[in-house]
Amino acid sequence: MEIQSQLDELVSRIGLDESDLATRRRFLEMQDADQKRMNQAADGLEDSHASFVERLYRHLEDFEPMAGVLRDPATLQRLKKRQEEYYRQLWSGPYGEAYLRDRLHIGLVHQRVGIGLKWYLGAYRLYLDHMIEQLLPAGEKGELLRSLLKSVFFDMSLAADTYTAAQHRALEQSEARFSRALRGANDGIWDWDVDNDRLYVSRRWTDMLGCERDSFGDGSASWFSRVHQDDLPGLRQAIEAHLRGDSASLHHEYRIRKHNGQYLWVLVRGVAEESDGSRRMAGSQTDISHSKRVEQQLRHAARHDPLTGLANRTRLDELLQRQHSKPSDDRVAALLFVDLDRFKLINDSLGHAVGDQVLVEVAQRLEGCLRQGDHLIRFGGDEFVAVLNDLGTLEDAEGVAQRMLDCLRQPLCAGGRSLAVTISIGIAPLEEQDATALAAADLALYRAKASGKAQFARYSHDLSSQAQRQLAMQSDLYQALEQGEFDLHFQPIFRIGDEAPHMVGFESLLRWPHGQRQMIPTEFIPSLEESGLIVPVGEWVLRESCRQARAWQLSGHPRLYCSVNLSSRQLQQPEFASRLAGILRQTGLAPASLILEITERLLMQNSPETQANLSKLASLGVRLALDDFGTGYCSLGYLSRFPLHILKVDRSFIGGATHQPELTAISRAIIGLGHDLGLEVIAEGVEEEAQLAFLREEGCRLAQGFWLSHPLTAADMQQLLQQPNGEPARAPRFHAGSAQGRG
User: Fold this and answer.
1) Which tens digits make up the pLDDT trace of 42-51?
2) Membrane-crossing residues (predicted)?
């Protein structure tokens, strides 16, 4: 059975089909007449064949290794008999499939016993020499033909040996390359006869497991019994899918038990084919433990914060997704959004290294406040999020939040310093299919911050509505800036002295006619500040104010000046002073004709950018006014530290100066302080004649307010400027507000 299978494989490998046989005959010019001629002569050649066989084997006995094969008498007689039978078939035919298979069979047997091709060719030469002697008359031409055959077959033997040696060398090189590749790849090799369940594995395959090759069984059970129980079903499914033809190859990762009981991650690859009527699979197995460890480390790094070791936002998304897919029950879940109060101050004053130490310590303390099953995530920067599961009520989340607040009452040590750190916390319910819980907790955190910090606040729907209104407001403000919806009104500033009030300048006030109503500045100025739009809007106010002031100067009021309020965001822009200088050049307004108003709170921020910009503005020749003086907590030392020119007395003091002794004293003190420091003093909010008389009595020479003039449009302002001496106009009342806001 085995030899027949090998013969079938040889026929297939050589390609001996009808087409190939016909091609061979045609190339050799074999005709039917040739076969008929040989058939007719066959019966008379029996004795010739017998004598040649005896001559051939006597000749072969003189050569090794042939002599070794022929020493056994039984083998020698069998070979002689087969040889005579072959010659009868050669002459008699027929040359069909039986003849073909018999020739392949003989060649296969001779190859197995080691008879080389040169012995074949030599034997054929001897046979032809013998038959020439038998078939042709003796003579000089017959001898010449014999000599020619000897030379031709000598060359044929050399060519055949050359082909054979080259093929052997190529095969050896291929096997060597394959062997080097296997050693370089460090892979284990396996070959599995699936139907007969016979498994071969290489030494490297067993070395991976710390086993001896000889101790490994020959069946697949020795393989599959070592596969981790969680991975075995997947491996079997992958193998069966490939055997069914569902996949081009086997490619599967799994864990396999080593000799010491530990498990090794491996990658098995292989292909299946049918061979000799049975299914076989073969392939390699690679140790991927290192890459699996790296993969696990990368997976951990992708979901955890490298500084604190806490989960990060990616892990938070997974937790929230898992929470949404959980079946609902009577228990509730919540999110806590935690933010460190004034953490930027720690980073700015002590450096980021100390800030990192603070974050690590805070993370450890917060984590200690959680219950089993809760999760703490570093959301980013100084923000943390806690996911609380299995709560009885939302009030239980407040208990966790309170523990967090309490855990930080004790100062922490970082950078060799004892630091007091507080947190603010926003609490929101985490409901099924609720994708807005994080935003809700953030809104609650914002409320806790706005209420004074170091506390927690719960989310309510009012917060969401307020946030939506704020978002809509900011969107409308962006559109207003793009479409030029903003407008300026102007509140005149008068020199009051002993004579009739005379206008010397004006304060620019930002107005926004939004839809069908005039927006009150207190409604939209905070949104401008929070969104950062105050910077481009403030620059527009500066440019328009300077342009308008210069236009009125050129129309006959050369000493008129304008006053514009500044935002802290504007003064924190590094290029603010140079941009303002550009506006002055473009509009032609002299720097001395511009007053910039700043608040006490802005001075108290005392940032390097603010100080640098104020110094540059003063060097340009722009005058600086301290607005609403006395309403904040500004130290008097700031009055001499910054290059101020003007002090503005807040309306809250002027309004009660005529009938409240305390406010009278405060107003008098502020006016006197300004004069003593060499500053001009402007009183705001003058709404009564008695207030004007008080200011004159105290020597305050500049004032603004409704008693003198309401804020005016540009057209109304033009009419006022055309009056003799710029006397106060009794214009209809407008909503008061401050420059970019106040009025």
Assistant:
1) 778 888 888 8
2) none
- Dihedral (C-alpha) 309, 312, 317, 321: value to the nearest 10 degrees? 10
Q: What are the angstrom distances between the C-alpha of 261 and each of 203, 226, 249, 697?
A: 19, 10, 30, 100
Instruction: Decide if 502 contacts 703 (C-beta within 8 A).
Output: no
d(CA 413, CA 682): 49
Looking at every residue in the chain, the average pLDDT score rounds to 83
Give the type of residue at 241: A
Q: Which among 503, 514, 425 has a CA at the least distance from the CA of 475?
A: 514
The answer to whether 707 and 688 have CB atoms below 8 angstroms apart is yes
**Distance (Å, whole) CA 541 – CA 486:** 9
Determine if the pTM surpasses 0.85. Answer: no
Helix axes 534-554 and 576-587, enclosed angle (nearest 10): 30
Are 430 and 323 spatial neighbours (Cβ–Cβ below 8 Å)? yes
Residue entry with tokens 């030494």: 203
Alpha-carbon 424 to chain mean position: 31
State how far Cα 363 lies from the chain centre. 25
pLDDT at position 143? 67
What is the three-class DSSP state of 562?
strand
pLDDT score at 369: 94
Structural contact between residues 412 and 426, judged by C-beta atoms closer than 8 angstroms: no
Q: Take residue 350 and report the two structure tokens written for it.
A: 């002590």
Give the integer Cα–Cα distance in Å for 462 and 443.
Answer: 10
Element (H, E) at 428: strand 423-429
Question: If residue 110 lies in a helix (H) or strand (E), which one and from where to where?
Answer: helix 97-113
Mind spelling out the 3-state secondary structure of 242-259? Answer: HHCCCCCCEEEEEEEECC
Tokens matching residue 279: 């299914």
Other beta carbons within 10 angstroms of residue 51's beta carbon come to 12
Percentage, residues of the chain above pLDDT 90: 34
Please state, in angstroms and as integers, the Cα–Cα distance from residue 220 to each residue in 199, 263, 580, following that order: 6, 19, 84
Cα radius of gyration rounded to whole Å, the chain: 52
Give the integer Cα–Cα distance in Å for 494 and 497: 9
The pairing of strands 188-193 and 332-340 is: unpaired
For 94-98, 292-296, 349-353, 443-447, which range has the lowest pLDDT when averaged over its residues?
A: 94-98
Phi, psi of 686 (to 5 degrees): -75, 115
517 φ/ψ angles, rounded to the nearest 5 degrees:
-135, 155
Instruction: Please report the pLDDT score of residue 492 as a whole number.
Output: 95
Please report where in the chains the tokens 């500053």 appear, as a residue.
Answer: 679
Beta bridge pairs of residue 198: 193
Residue with tokens 């099924």: 432
Tokens of 153: 């077959």
DSSP state of 574: T
Cβ-contact 647, 680 below 8 angstroms: yes
Please state whether the peptide bond connecting residue 65 to the residue before it is cis, i.e. omega within 30 degrees of 0: yes
Count how many Cα atoms sit within 13 Å of the Cα of residue 703 in the half-sphere of its side chain: 29
Within 13 A of 590's CA, how many CA atoms are on the CB side? 8
Please check the confidence at residue 182 and state whether its pLDDT lies above 70.
no
Q: By the 8 A CB rule, do 687 and 705 touch? A: yes
CA distance linking residue 65 with residue 592, whole number of Å: 121
Residue that has been written with the tokens 């003198």 in this structure: 708
Q: Which two tokens stand for residue 244?
A: 């069914």
- At 641-680, the pLDDT tens digits run 778 899 988 888 888 888 888 888 888 988 898 888 889 9
What pLDDT is stored for residue 727 in this prediction? Answer: 46
DSSP symbol at 45? G
pLDDT digits 0-9 by tens, 192-235: 999 889 998 888 888 889 888 777 788 899 999 999 999 999 99
Q: Which amino acid is at 575?
A: E
Listed ranges 155-164, 217-226, 357-366, 437-446; the one with the highest mean pLDDT: 357-366
Q: CA 296, CA 6: separation in Å to the nearest integer?
A: 50
Locate 347 and state its tokens. Answer: 């980073």
